[in-house]
Amino acid sequence: MDPNILYALIGVFAGAIGLLAGRVIFGKASDKKVQEAEIQAQTILKEAELRAETVRKEKELEAKEKFVQLKAAHERETLERNKKTNDAENRIRQKEQSVNQKENNLDKQIKENEAIKENLNRQIELVNIKRSEYEKHQEEHVRRLEKIANLSAEDARNQLLESLKSEVQTRALALQQEIIEEAKQKAGKEARKIVIQTIQRTAAEQAIENSITVFNLESDEIKGQIIGREGRNIRAIEAATGVDLIVDDTPEAILLSSFDPLRREIARLSLQRLVSDGRIHPARIEEVVEKTRKQIEEQVMEIGERTVIELGIHGLHKELVRMVGRMRFRSSYGQNLLMHSRETANLCATMAAELGLNPKLAKRAGLLHDIGKVPDEESELSHALLGAKLAEKYGENPAVVNAIAAHHDEVEMQFVISPIIQACDAISGARPGARREIMQQYLQRIKDLENLAMGYNGVEKAYAIQAGRELRVIVEAEKVSDQDSDRLSFEIAQKIQTEMTFPGQIKVTVIREKRAVNVAR
C-alpha cells in the first residue's frame, strides 16, 4: 500500500479516536468546548478525506501513464514482428522466383541436349555407313593387289617386316655404340668439370675436434676443492656429467676426457661456475650441472635455428633443427659434424644447380645426411638408415629420405639427388685437412680389422669396406655351417668392440657360399 494513503487513513482513525476520547474525558465540560472539539475533529476528517482523494487521483494518473507506456511498447514489438515477417515472406517469394527461373532454364537445356543427341545419333549412323563402304572398297583393293603380285597381303607384310627388321637392327646397334662412346666421353669430362667447379666455389672451414678439453685454473689450490674430501666432489662431477676428470701434475690445469663433446662442454661450463662461485659440494654440483645442461639445450636449439636460417632452409621440423644444433658438439673422424654437414649442403646446392636440379632440395638433404649420428637414444641401425627413419618420421620429402639412406650404398638410390649427396659427402670428408686421421693410421686400422677376422677358424677372406664401417667375412662352406655363421658374426663383433678403438659403428657380415663344380671333357 502507498505510504500517503496509509498516512491519510491513520489520520482519520486518529481524529475519530480523539473525538471519542474528548467526549469521554470532557463529558462533564461545557457544551461549548465539546462543540469546538467536534468541529476540530470534523476538520481533521475532512482534511484526511481530501488528502486521501488527492493520493487516489495521483495513483490513478500514474497507473494510466504506465498502461499507456506498456501499450506503446507492445505496439512497437508488434510492428517489428510484423516487419520481420514481411521481410521473411519477401525473401521466400524471391527464392521461389529464382527456383522457378532455374527450373525453366533447366527444361530449356534438357530440350536442347535432346536435340543435340538426336543430331549426333544421325551423324554416327552416317559415319558407320561410310565406314562399311570404305572397308568394302579396301577389301576389293587388297584382292586386286594380291592378284597382281601373286602374294597374299600377309606374306607381303611379313617379307617387308623381315627386311626392315634386319636393317633397323644393324643401324640401331651401330648408333647405340656411337651414342654410348660419345656419352662416356662427355659424361666423364662433364663430371670432372662439375666436381672441380663445385669444389672451387665452396669455401671450406678448418675445424679439428679432439677428445680432451683443458680446463685452466688460477692456482693449484683449487684442485683440492674440486677433488673434495676423500674424492667425493670429483666423483659427483664425473657421475653427473659422464666425463672423466684427470687431475695430475700439470700446473694450473685439469683435463676433461670424453668422446662426447657435448658432455665435455657441460662439464667445462659447470666447473667454471663452481670455481667462480667457490661452493663445491655434491648437492651444489648436481644443481649447477642441471642448470648448465638446460642452458646447453637452449644453445643447441639456437645453433640449429641459426644454421637453418643461414642456409636458407625453411619448414624444417623443430626436432630436426635441434639435432642440427647437436651436430656442433659431435665430431666424425676428427671433423666437426656440423661444419661437415654445412659444407656438404653447400656443395650439394652448387652441384645440383650445375646439373639443372633443385638446389634447395639438394641443400636440405646435404644438411640432414648425417642426422643419424646425433640421435637421442642409441640404436642398432647404421647412421644412414637411422637418419632416413628420423627424416621420414618428421615429414621430409621422399627424395631427401632416400638420399640420406643411400649415401653409403645401404639402400638403392631412387632419386637423382641421391648420388649428388654421396659425392659431396665424399668430397667434404676427403679434402686435405678435413679429418685428423692420417693415411698410415687409417690403413693400419683397416689391416688390423681384417687380421682380427682372419684369426678365426674357417675364415677364407676378410674385407674392410666403406672406410672401415663394414667388415665382410667370407668363410669356407665345408668348415662353417649356417648356424656357425651367426655365431661367428656375433663373436667377431664382440671382439672388435672390446679390442679396437673406432669411430661410429662397424657392421660385420659373414658370407657362406656353397659351390658345386664339375668339368665336362
Question: Mind explaining what this structure looks like?
Answer:
The protein has 521 residues and is mainly alpha-helical. The chain has helices spanning 3-25, 31-149, 153-201, 221-227, 232-241, 261-277, 282-311, 318-326, 337-354, 359-368, 383-393, 398-406, 417-430, 439-454, 482-499; strands at 212-216, 244-246, 253-257, 331-332, 335-336, 459-465, 470-476, 507-513. The strands form 3 sheets. Strands 1-3-2 form a 3-stranded antiparallel sheet, with helices on one face. It has a 3-stranded mixed sheet with strand order 6-7-8, with helices on one face. It has a two-stranded antiparallel ribbon with strand order 4-5. The termini are far apart.
Features:
521 residues; mainly alpha; three-stranded antiparallel sheet; three-stranded mixed sheet; flat
What ranges have pLDDT less than 50 throughout 5 or more consecutive residues?
Answer: 204-209
End-to-end distance, in Å?
Answer: 139 Å
Number of strands: 8
User: Count of DSSP helices?
Assistant: 15
What class do helices, strands and sheet pairing give?
mainly alpha
Order of helices and strands: HHHEHHEEHHHEEHHHHHHEEHE
Neighbour order of strands in the largest sheet: 1-3-2
Shape designation: flat
- Provide the gyration radius in Å: 51 Å
Average of the residue pLDDT scores: 81
Strand content: 5-15%
Helicity level, as a percent range? 55-70%
Largest sheet: 3 strands, antiparallel
